Amino acid sequence: MPTCWCLVTSPDNIAKTRERNFTIQGIKKGHRKKAEKMQPGDRVVLYATGLQAFAFTATITSRYFEDHTPIWTSDKPGEDYPFRFSIKPDVVLDEDDYVPARLLVEQMEYARKWPPQHWRLAFQGNVHVLPETDFALIEETMAQGAREPSTP
């Protein structure tokens, strides 16, 4: 059974993943243990901070590897998202079509850990494991407004 991950990052970092045709994703250096658990076949959904919305889903296609080549940026000096893995895009949305999380949180098992008025706390931090039912809800909602990923 694949694990479903929610990766929280800025819209700018999502744009940087888009520039690479959704072929690679990285997570922050404080999450090595989670990176070690990520396996080919696991699923990821990217949550855009600020916009508080879901941007795209993908399937992990490689084990994690460490690389410090600058791609993504952080407010934290020296953070280079070193734990990376290859991905294959599944449902990709343009920024104008991102799905606002507030539309789904009341239906999400994961978000029930927080009082409804504080649902944003569910998406603090860089990496979270989601129940498969939550991931399916997010992806099905996203698919309603999705277009084919653009290729070069």
The low-confidence runs, each spanning 5 or more residues with pLDDT under 50, are none
Spatial gap, N to C terminus: 33 Å
Residue-averaged pLDDT:
94
Number of contiguous helices: 3
CATH architecture: Roll
Q: Rg, please?
A: 14 Å
* Percent in strands: 25-35%
* Number of spatially distinct domains: 1
Major sheet attributes:
8 strands, mixed
Structural class per helix/strand content?
alpha+beta
CATH fold description? ph1033 like fold
Q: Would you count the extended β strands for me?
A: 8
Please identify which CATH superfamily we are dealing with. Answer: ph1033 like domains
Question: Can you tell me the CATH class?
Answer: Alpha Beta
**H/E series:** EHEHEEEEEEH
What shape does the CA trace take? globular
Residues in helix, %: 10-25%
Describe this structure in words.
The structure is a single chain. This protein has 152 residues and is an alpha+beta fold. It has one domain: ph1033 like domains (ph1033 like fold). Helices cover 18% and strands 28% of the residues. The protein is built from three helices and eight strands. It has helices at residues 11-19, 32-37, 132-143; strands at 4-9, 24-27, 43-48, 53-60, 65-66, 83-92, 99-100, 127-130. Strands 1, 2, 3, 4, 5, 6, 7 and 8 form an eight-stranded mixed β-sheet that branches. Strand 3 and strand 4 (53-60) form a beta hairpin.
